[in-house]
Amino acid sequence: MYWPDTELELIRVTGGRDSLFTKYEEITTNFPTNHLFFYNYGLELYQYASDTTTGKRPANYDELIKKAQEKLNKSLQLKPDYSKAALVLGQISYNAGVELQMQAKATHGAKPEDVKKRTELRAQSTKKFDEAIPYFEKVDKILGSQGNLKMEDRTALKDAYDLLITIYEQKNVKDKADAYTTKFNNVDKDHHP
Predict the structure, then answer these.
(1) In a 3-state reduction of DSSP, which class is residue 53?
(2) Which among 67, 2, 64 is positioned nearest to 34, based on CA atoms?
(3) Digit-coded pLDDT (tens) for 96-137
(4) Residue 12 lies in a domain
(5) Cα–Cα distance between 42 and 49 in angstroms, integer?
């Protein structure tokens, strides 16, 4: 896999995003069982779509996010115990939920249409958080059941627990928030080599 990785790195440095994504399409077609190519492609799509350094999102943001989710899900399908793909999929849904919450907070007014819009945005936010939960739980199932973990995996596990805690606190499900808080607090003790 050295050559495809080298090609991608060269395009990443010298080419544009379109060239990079075209090369990923070619590589994932040529290596349809390599979970890492699908993961990296999905991650790059998501990072590009979420990059706000220009002050705005790409015009095709929704399309990029959907494609990122497809590629990450393919990675997880090829390697069901690949915790990195599960974590990023959870983060995509979680971040969409946070964004919807912010839109709800920014919707002011007491008119019925304002109240209705806020209520709809909050419901959509909750739905996105609910979509994220199984992915974070998958990270817990994969990594939380192991003994010693590398630093990178301990960090991923903590990230999953942290977001589960936040979700369950917002949903007012104290027992689950407390259970994940305990797990979060014990990651280094339980999984340190």
Answers:
(1) coil
(2) 2
(3) 999 999 999 999 888 999 899 999 999 999 999 999 999 999
(4) yes
(5) 11
Rg (CA), the chain: 19
- Domain that residue 137 falls in: 81-193
Q: Would 72 be classed as within a structural domain?
A: no
- Is this structure's pTM higher than 0.90? yes
Examine residue 33 and state whether it is found in any structural domain, yes or no: yes
Q: Are residues 128 and 185 in the same domain?
A: yes
Q: What is the mean pLDDT of the chain?
A: 93
CA distance 110 to 7: 56
DSSP the chain: -HHHHHHHHHHHHHS-HHHHHHHHHHHHHHSTT-HHHHHHHHHHHHHHHH--TTSS--TTHHHHHHHHHHHHHHHHHHSTT-HHHHHHHHHHHHHHHHHHHHHHHH----SHHHHHHHHHHHHHHHHHHHHHHHHHHHHHHHHTTSSS--HHHHHHHHHHHHHHHHHHHHTT-HHHHHHHHHHHHHHHHHH--
Tokens of 96: 């969409």
Q: Do residue 9 and residue 103 come from a single domain?
A: no
> Cα separations (Å) of 21 from 30, 38, 47?
14, 11, 12
